[in-house]
TrEMBL record:
Cited SUPFAM superfamilies: Iron-dependent repressor protein, dimerization domain (SSF47979), Winged helix' DNA-binding domain (SSF46785)
Gene3D superfamilies documented for this protein: Iron dependent repressor, metal binding and dimerisation domain, Winged helix-like DNA-binding domain superfamily/Winged helix DNA-binding domain
PANTHER family on file: IRON (METAL) DEPENDENT REPRESSOR, DTXR FAMILY, TRANSCRIPTIONAL REGULATOR MNTR
Protein keywords: Activator, Cytoplasm, DNA-binding, Manganese, Repressor, Transcription, Transcription regulation
Quaternary structure (record): Homodimer.
Function noted in UniProt: In the presence of manganese, represses expression of mntH and mntS. Up-regulates expression of mntP.
Name assigned to this protein: Transcriptional regulator MntR
Length: 155
């Protein structure tokens, strides 16, 4: 009889397949992930705008495009979205400013990022990996998990 191999453990036995949750639970889980992805991009832009304002005194679309590694047209589309959500204020050929709600979102995102990064560092994750992983985790982690991370760090 041949051995099954786990792709994550070369040469190791395969784990039994996971059981699937009920369809409505499965759909709800995926809905949460889709919402997190949508929020992630918005938060990343708002946080970058806050960082630019705080370090350079202003945020401009050309700098955002450069730092995100995207075209200015992509940034322009996102800025329109942020305007629609009342997270930024801007005028043609002028700097971009955060509204009070935009600033609140940026600060909350920074706080989550710092907490997740501290947690990963305390686990012994190498710095470069911790920074990269924290950037994704911060947008997908629940408030409950964040609170448990905070408690663990304080213990």
């Amino acid at each position: 009889m041949g051995r099954n191999h786990d792709p994550y453990e070369p040469g190791g036995p395969t784990r039994p397949p996971p059981s699937l949750p009920a369809p409505e639970i499965h759909a709800r889980q995926h809905s949460h992930v889709r919402q997190a992805h949508e929020t992630e991009l918005i938060e990343d832009y708002v946080e970058l705008i806050a960082d630019l304002i705080d370090t350079r005194g202003e945020a401009r679309a050309v700098e955002i495009a450069h730092r995100r590694g995207v075209r200015q047209a992509t940034v322009s589309k996102m800025l329109q979205r942020l305007l629609g959500q009342q997270l930024i204020e801007t005028e043609p050929y002028r700097a971009i400013f955060l509204t009070a709600e935009g600033r609140r979102m940026a600060e909350a995102s920074r706080a989550r990022h710092a907490l997740v990064l501290d947690f990963l560092r305390r686990l012994g994750v190498p710095e470069e990996v911790a920074r990269r992983d924290a950037e994704g985790i911060e947008h997908h982690v629940s408030a409950e998990t964040l609170e448990r991370m905070r408690r663990w760090l304080e213990a």
